[in-house]
Write a structure and sequence with these properties.
Number of domains: 3
Largest sheet: 5 strands, antiparallel
Distance between the termini: 52 Å
Order of helices and strands: EHEHEEEHHHHHHEEHEEEEEEEHHH
CATH topology of the largest domain: Uridine Diphospho-n-acetylenolpyruvylglucosamine Reductase, domain 3
CATH class of the largest domain: Alpha Beta
Strand content: 15-25%
Radius of gyration: 19 Å
Shape: globular
Helix content: 25-40%
Strand order of the largest sheet: 4-5-10-6-7
CATH architecture of the largest domain: 2-Layer Sandwich
Bound molecules: flavin-adenine dinucleotide
Length: 291
């Protein structure tokens, strides 16, 4: 399979890339790791006339930390996220999402921005980012906007990205003390597997033995977009963590999911797995929150 013909551009700054995208109009596509875009171009599913490579833009390649939290450049690759001791210490659910994405080859190329922008319902980065309350920065020539990641997805492969817009940064506040999060992806194989179901949970406690003051649960591959399990979250807030509480929250998460039958698995099986993964991620999040 050959790539269709296109013109290739390699801007060195974000402002240059935005100007180029504005000038080239609808026929231009940003290129990051290419693990999604180039595959779709080879399959003739999309034929951009111009491809704007983002890998020379230094501003969007690094991880920054300040007193408020973290900023991840959209061009950070998944292997660097999985291998970062800072992310594994402070944002372990994100580290878990990155470590299980694709294969070493895919992780070395794929970027966090590309994973978000491709908007696959089973993508591994959105659920952990959603439970950490991440916001994303979208840039167009001369202006930028910040939106909550969970508002970004509008359908499979569809987002709020406007023509010419580039995702530059993912911003995550420092998680509070006595909080913890976890992400588990479930597929039929151990490696190189797109999730059949995935779940991420975040809980924040009043004190190590105290009540749950904040809970966020996000589910992947059980709806057209990654979903917040809001009725499950409502079960948890204001209560003391316990096995029976987590069981009730897991039952509620099943009602939040909107799975379909497909070649990977039935909707019924997916519902069963939502329950199992919600409970397991809550247990792991609690362990991290309590010390
Ligand atoms: C063999 C294989 C296994 C895979 N396994 C998994 C898996 O287990 N889990 C998973 O989640 N995914 C998986 N994927 C899908 C893919 O690797 C990821 O979604 C990857 O993170 C995409 O990132 P990328 O940098 O390669 O994006 P690209 O392919 O470069 O771009 C993807 C899309 O996003 C747009 N885009 C990229 N960056 C930006 C930006 N900064 N601003 C605006 N738009 C942008 C592009 O225009 C394009 O439409 C797999 C893919 C392959 C080929």
């Amino acid at each position: 399979m050959l790539l269709p013909k296109f013109e290739y551009h390699e801007p060195g700054r974000l402002s240059e890339a935005c100007a180029l995208m504005a000038e080239l109009g609808e026929g231009a596509r940003p290129l990051a790791g290419g693990t999604d875009l180039l595959v779709n171009m080879k399959k003739n599913l999309i034929k951009p006339r111009h491809v704007v490579y983002l890998g020379r833009i230094k501003e969007i390649t690094s991880l920054k930390q300040d007193s408020k939290g973290f900023s991840l450049g959209s061009f950070m690759n998944i292997a660097d996220i999985a291998g970062s001791p800072l992310i594994s210490d402070k944002l372990p659910a994100l580290s878990e999402g990155a470590a299980g994405l694709g294969s070493p080859l895919v992780r070395n190329l794929a970027t966090i921005g590309g994973n978000i922008a491709s908007a696959r319902p089973a993508a591994d980065m959105p659920p952990p980012l959603m439970v950490y309350g991440a916001r994303i920065k979208l840039n167009r020539k001369g202006r930028s906007r910040l939106i909550a990641i969970e508002e970004f997805f509008t359908g499979p492969g569809k987002t709020l990205l406007k023509a010419g817009e580039i995702l530059s940064e993912i911003i995550i506040d420092e998680p509070p003390v006595f909080s913890g999060a976890s992400y588990i992806k479930f597929g039929m194989r151990r490696a190189l597997e797109i999730s059949l179901v995935s779940a991420a949970s975040f809980i924040s406690l009043e004190s190590p033995e105290g009540i749950i003051t904040k809970a966020r649960i996000a589910l992947g591959a059980v709806g057209p977009v990654p979903l917040r399990a809001r009725s499950a979250e409502a079960v948890l807030v204001g209560e003391k963590p316990s096995a029976s509480l987590f069981e009730r929250a897991a039952d509620a998460a099943v009602t939040d999911a909107r799975p379909i039958d497909d070649f990977r698995g039935s909707a019924e099986y997916r519902r069963d797995m939502v329950k199992v993964l919600t409970r397991r991620t809550l247990e792991a999040a609690l362990k991290r929150a309590s010390h």
